[in-house]
Each structure stands twice: as C-alpha cells, then as structure tokens.
Amino acid sequence: MTKTFRAACTLLLAPALSLTAPTAHAAWTLNMTRGVTDISRRIYELHMLMFWLCVIIGIFVFAWMIYSIVAFRHSRGAVPDTKLVHSTKAEVIWTIIPVLILIGCAVPAARTLIETENATNTELTILVTGYQWKWGYQYLDAGVTVISTLDRASNEARQLGSGIDANSVPDYLLNVDHALVVPAGVKVRLLLTAQDVIHAWWVPALGVKRDAIPGLTNESWFKVDADKSGVYRGQCAELCGRDHGFMPIVVDVRSKADFDRWLGEQKAAAAAAARSTADATPAAAPASGAATQKS
Q1: CB within 8 A of 98, min separation 6: which ones?
Q2: Is the distance from CB of 197 to CB of 240 less than 8 angstroms?
Q3: Domains, the chain, ranges and CATH?
Q4: Which strand (E) or helix (H) includes residue 232?
Q5: Tens-place pLDDT, residues 40-98
Q6: Is the peptide bond before 94 cis (omega within 30 degrees of 0)?
Q7: pTM: predicted TM-score of the whole model, two decimal places
C-alpha cells in the first residue's frame, strides 16, 4: 500500500516539479525562411509553388463539393441518379489531370534536388562529426579542428532548480562555445558523419539538413551570399538520446579576409599545441637487447 501511495504521489507531483525548470519560447513563424544562400531560396520558391498549387486544388475541390451539396440538396427535389455507374470520359479526365499536375511538380522538384547534391567546384571542405551531444568540425585542408558544445550560460540555466530565468540568457539553447566559422561568397563542402548514433545537421538559413550516420559519410554544400555575413543558428534534427535538445549549431559567416585571419590564428594555435605536446613527451628509452660492442 505504501509503495502504491508513493507512486501516486510521484505521478501527481511530477507536473508541478516540471514547472520549476526554466522555460523559453521560440520565435513564432508560419513559413519557411528564404535563407541566405541560393539553394535555400530555390527550396523556398519550390515550397511556395507547391503550397499555392495545393491552395488552388483545395479551393477547386471544396467549391465543387459545396456547390454540389447546395444545388442538389434533397429539399430542392434532387433525385439520386441510380443509372450512372461508369463513365469512361470522367475516368480519363480525373486520371490525366492529376498526372499532368504531378509532372508539373516533379520537374522543378527534380531540378532543385539535383542542385542540392551538386558539391562540385567547392573551395573549402569541412568534415562534420556528430557526437553525443556536440559537434566536431575539421577543416581538412588546414589541419584545424573545432569542437562545438552548448555554451556555459545555457547549460547552467537548463539545469533543474538552477534559479536562472532562461529568458535572461541570450540565444538560450541556441548558442555554443565555438562556432563553425566559414567565409561568405565561398562554396563550402560538408562531409557529415557521426561517432555514436545518428544525428542531423540542420541550419534553415543555409538550406542544409543532412543526416550524420556512424560508418557513413554524407555530403552537402552551401554558399552564403557575399553580403550576408553574420551568425546563423540551427539544431540537431534527429532524436539522438538524452541531450538531443542541447546540441545547437552556430555558423559564423565572415568576410574572406576575416576568415583567412581566423584560420591563420587557429593554425598557429594548433602548431603551438603540437610543439608543446612534443616537448612534454619523454624521449624513448633505448630498445632492450641492443647490440653491444665486443671487446
């Protein structure tokens, strides 16, 4: 009886305790974003084309249905036609029209899909690795690696009973300690994989959403407009475990000159760290059994 009572109390108190955790509200939007890349705008335009096509079809279908209900209602003496069981003309019409609509949708959709896969002529390649629960960015041509995790302010505020108002934390749960830095006006190639479970790298403003799968390397790309330097945010879009909601993505887009300066600093820091590690490593002892000079 005591165990049952405790279980019932736990179920009743759980909702109340959850209210003590910090909460924050995301910006309310009703549509996709145009983004800051050519491919994101093409995706947006394709989305709007399909949307308005669905609106037109919906208006036509509901208008016809409402007209039929009103014009042929029983109170006006309408009598059901019990003889019409087949119409070749009607069947041809309602088959050809949907086929033409689907073809009209497939052509622009295929063009956009093909373009999203066109990762040729890129100038910068970055290996993106998903971990539980952080991201790793390796600039393959520069030998620079960046590990990106949830920033300390958000991590402290999200703790149960922290007493910190989440609304007072800038970019709550959408900020990191080290962002992915890329240059504007440069086509960037992403190679995506994961170390543990499936993740998904998603930044709406870039028009990129691609799974990161252990043992498999996916490919994507983006090219931010030259005049669109700034910070763009995203999140892991694949349920990846306990802290799935706490591995945001931040992309810091800089001018080409600023990016080159930042990359040079990272290279210098990596070289200094490598030298420090080498200096701290003791010299290897001579191998046992080495030959000795005979007297």
Answers
A1: none
A2: yes
A3: 38-78+87-116 (no CATH), 124-279 (2.60.40.420)
A4: strand 230-236
A5: 999 999 999 999 999 999 999 999 999 999 988 888 888 887 777 778 888 899 899 99
A6: no
A7: 0.78
